[in-house]
Write the structure tokens for this entry.
Amino acid sequence: MKNNSSKGFTLVELMVVIGIISILSVIGLTAYGVARGKANDGRRKAEIKSITDSIESSKDFTNRVYRYTIATAATDFPSNGGVIPNDPSGTRNYCISTSTAVPISVPTDCTAATNLWPSGGCPTDLNCGGSHYDKVSSAISSTGDLGNTTPVNVKSWTLCAALDQESPPFCLSSLER
């Protein structure tokens, strides 16, 4: 007489186990992606706050203008190699809008702003005031001027970062209004 009892798993049992592992992997990777996006957004907000504090420290109260330079950035961000921090994704920039008037138009309704944020650049209009934004790294000169025009005499500014998990972009503005 033959004994047909075999030891091991059937094909159906193996497929069920593989299916369960696959489902758990998809759930885990999705949760990881959301957590990573939130972590990057938190880092962006912290860096925007640090850059804001650094720019505010360069205020010339006598002339009521900002004199932010590359040297100021080097002093304020030594752990970052002496340069202003970049967006953690590497595909976006922190962007600044400057004005020689007080106050600058502050973003209020930026519902479509994340769609206007080009990869590797800054939006020309955040859909919330018509302000032109430049990369922070491009807007800082070695002559003590913050902005791209000469003479600058920047009296107000708004600094923004596009976020992964939230909309609209996170923006902070100069203290003087």
The helical segments are 11-56, 70-76, 136-139. Residues 11-173 form one domain. Residues 156 and 176 are 7 Å apart (CA to CA). Residues 106-114 have pLDDT under 50 and may be disordered.
